[in-house]
Write a structure and sequence with these properties.
The protein is globular. It is α+β, with helices and mostly antiparallel strands. 17% of the residues lie in helices and 26% in strands.
């Protein structure tokens, strides 16, 4: 087999081609993306306010249907932790249901762990040399929260004493969550409430990256959303701003629909902002409207199958139903139809790659740069033991 050349996306959007069609249709590439991108990035794992009392534990699966990594959220006396939910003895699940406990106990052979993941007891292991060792503790996974949301990452892997490749936050504001906090951190996030009635999952017969492509480009709005978004947003004023690990699309209201009452000194002060559309690499959309927050988590289920989780957090319910965030289901249906059509096209043997609109596809170009960079081989970090977590 002739080796394929490495992915290269030209940094100049006016000279760049898009990702090749095989990125969206090749099973081997899809498997690489799961390991190189999703296992190394921040992923949504639940609601920040769900586990409040000490001893509350909740098993979760990181990206079910793709990574399928068993984790457990455990509230100790001092903080909330995310741990591997796989017993370090024989690999059984440790926590099999939500509850309140004093410690974690594997029902297979009785191995017991603290809520911090540290091994406490193992029956009938007398005489085992070098036991217990750091590898007998449950690996602890980096966990962070923003607003009502919890995020975890498998990078760095267990026992690797290095920070994640995608930093949560940095002093210079180039961390994963920093641009979101800088733009909308002033909102009263403690007042946002989860709305189960308007939260649902969508299944799409298309590659996850095509869904992201479509979300990030402005170009399709007047063509695909002519009866929905174009009446609410000023297309001429619509624009995209890039950050280190994501970007922001600014939706400016066209008419008298609800807009944000921005604080003094805000970068968009004086503009009638109807929506902040944040995308964070690789698969998270935070859509902030005057009524609240709509979260889209794009989960790959296969080469051409995707689940999109919609989660709504309402702040001002009286503003629901108006403006750019008024009929999200209709917008979603319009997007799904076109993305499923594109999936058939990029799978064609006659399709190679396209070009970008320098004005309208800034976000998509940025996504392609980050994805190509993540798939470029690099030297892995040297593993380092981290035995200091457990006394």
């Amino acid at each position: 087999m002739i080796p394929r050349p490495p992915l290269r996306i030209h940094p100049d959007i006016a000279r760049s081609h898009t990702l090749p069609g095989r990125i969206y249709a090749d099973a081997g590439v899809h498997a690489r993306i799961l390991d190189a991108v999703f296992a190394r990035s921040w992923q949504w794992v639940g609601d920040a306010g769900h586990l409040r009392a000490p001893g509350h534990v909740l098993p979760v699966t990181l990206l079910p249907g793709s990574l399928d990594e068993p984790l457990v959220l455990a509230r100790g006396d001092d903080d909330l932790r995310c741990l591997s939910n796989v017993c370090t003895h024989r690999g059984a699940l440790v926590v099999e249901g939500e509850g309140h406990v004093k410690h974690l106990r594997c029902r297979y052979h009785g191995r017991r762990f603290g809520l911090d993941g540290c091994l406490l007891h193992m029956p009938e292991f007398e005489g085992v040399e070098g036991f217990p060792a750091p590898d007998d503790d449950l690996p602890r996974i980096p966990l962070a929260s923003w607003g009502p949301l919890l995020f975890a990452t498998l990078d760095p892997g267990p026992r690797v004493g290095q920070p994640p490749r995608i930093p949560w936050t940095t002093p210079d504001g180039n961390g994963w969550i920093d641009p979101v906090q800088a733009r909308v951190g002033w909102l009263p996030w403690e007042a946002f409430r989860f709305d189960a009635a308007t939260s649902r999952d969508y299944l799409i017969e298309a590659n996850w990256a095509l869904y992201v492509d479509n979300y990030l480009e402005e170009f399709h709005i007047p063509y695909v959303h002519g009866g929905s978004l174009t009446g609410a947003l000023d297309y001429d004023a619509y624009r995209t701003e890039r950050f280190a690990w994501g970007n922001l699309q600014l939706g400016i209201a066209k008419g008298d629909d609800p807009v944000f009452d921005l604080p003094p000194g805000h970068p968009e002060s004086g503009e009638r902002v109807a929506a902040f559309y944040f995308w964070l690499f690789p698969n998270l959309m935070l859509n902030v409207y005057p009524w609240g927050l709509s979260v889209n988590v794009v989960e790959p289920l296969g080469v051409a199958r995707t689940r999109v989780r919609f989660r709504s957090y309402v702040w001002r319910p009286e503003l629901r139903g108006a403006g750019a965030g008024g009929d999200l289901h209709r917008v979603e249906m319009e997007d799904e139809e076109i993305v499923e059509s594109v999936q058939k096209g990029v799978s064609s043997r006659l399709y190679t790659a396209g070009r970008f609109s320098p004005r309208r596809e800034v976000g998509t170009h940025h996504f392609h740069e980050l994805l190509a960079r993540a798939l470029t081989p690099e030297d892995p970090p040297a593993p380092a033991s981290d035995p200091s977590r457990c006394p």
